[in-house]
Amino acid sequence: MMNVFDWFDGPYPARVRIAIAEKHLRSEVEFVSVDLWGGEHKSPAFLAKNYSGTLPVLELADGTLIAECTAITEYLDNLDGAPILTGTTAREKGLIHMMSKRAELEVLDAISVYFHHATAGLGPHVELYQNAEWGLRQRDKALRGMRYFDGILRQQPFVTGDYFSMADITLIGGLIFADLVKVAIPDDCDALSAWWVHMQQRPSVRNRLTMSERAAELA
Ligand code: GTS
Fold first, then answer.
1. How many domains does the chain have?
2. In a domain, 217, yes or no
3. Which listed site, 59, 61, 69, 103, has its alpha carbon 20 to 30 Å from 110?
4. CATH number of the domain that 10 lies in?
5. pLDDT, tens digit, 9 for 90 and up, residues 178-198
6. pLDDT over threshold 90, residue 170
7. If you average pLDDT over residues 28-37, what whole number do you get?
8. Within this chain, do residues 117 and 52 fall inside the same structural domain, yes or no?
């Protein structure tokens, strides 16, 4: 059994939950809830698991700890020797990592900075330093990033070409975060909006919360 330390509706944790579902690994994973809103991810006990104090973290049966969504996805995808998310050829691997990093830099991480700096974020006990101007700039960066990905998706069905990959999952994380903080996809981004509707229909994306988490979210 592997443990995934996460928070059920977090956008970064969603990336790993989607990868787990795509790889049909759900029965081999236990989700361990870390109270993000209570700041548990910044406690000494959790920092000992992940120096960066972020979720998610994967813990293997032998106690090995792997943080960072990209690294976790790479591990899970290669566990059975038949990767479907992170590429098989050198060219695919190169393109997927480039586009996944770009989705982080230009959309997901930018939205995250907006949330932590230009909104109340996780509250004063967690947000020890805030810089609203920096946060608002990052929101503008994310909107530019959405336009960039709209241009990509006008040319091809998925972020890296004609197949679903980790890069799509990263951009999905970005749009989940954008939804949470009410940053809308610009109206003229038809291709990105259509791709987003399509992605939300994927079972791995649609079913990323357990039944009880879904109930908690609706309550
Ligand atoms: N680069 C990290 C990764 O890819 O795993 C970023 C992870 C990250 O920022 N996770 C969020 C976090 O821990 C979780 S969530 O916001 O998506 O729920 N944020 C808490 C904080 O204080 O930064």
1. 2
2. no
3. 59
4. 3.40.30.10
5. 999 999 999 999 999 999 999
6. yes
7. 96
8. no
Cβ of 17 less than 6 Å from ligand 1? no
Same domain, 110 and 168: yes
Q: How far is the CA of 46 from the centre of ligand 1 (A)?
A: 13
Residue nearest to atom 23 of ligand 1 (CA): 54
Q: Are residues 65 and 105 in the same domain?
A: no
The pTM is what? Answer: 0.97
Tokens for 196, please give them: 């987003």
Contact indicator for 151, 158 with CB cutoff of 8 Å: no
Question: Which pLDDT score, from 0 to 100, does residue 20 have?
Answer: 98
Phi-psi region of 56 (alpha: psi -120 to 50; beta: other; left: phi over 0): beta
Residue nearest to atom 18 of ligand 1 (CA): 10
Cβ-count burial 23-57 (b if 16+ within 10 Å, e if not): bebeeebebeebebeebbbeeeebeebbeeebbbb
Q: What is the pLDDT of residue 164?
A: 98
**CA atoms of 50 and 58, how far apart (whole Å):** 10
Nearest CA to ligand 1 atom 2: 68
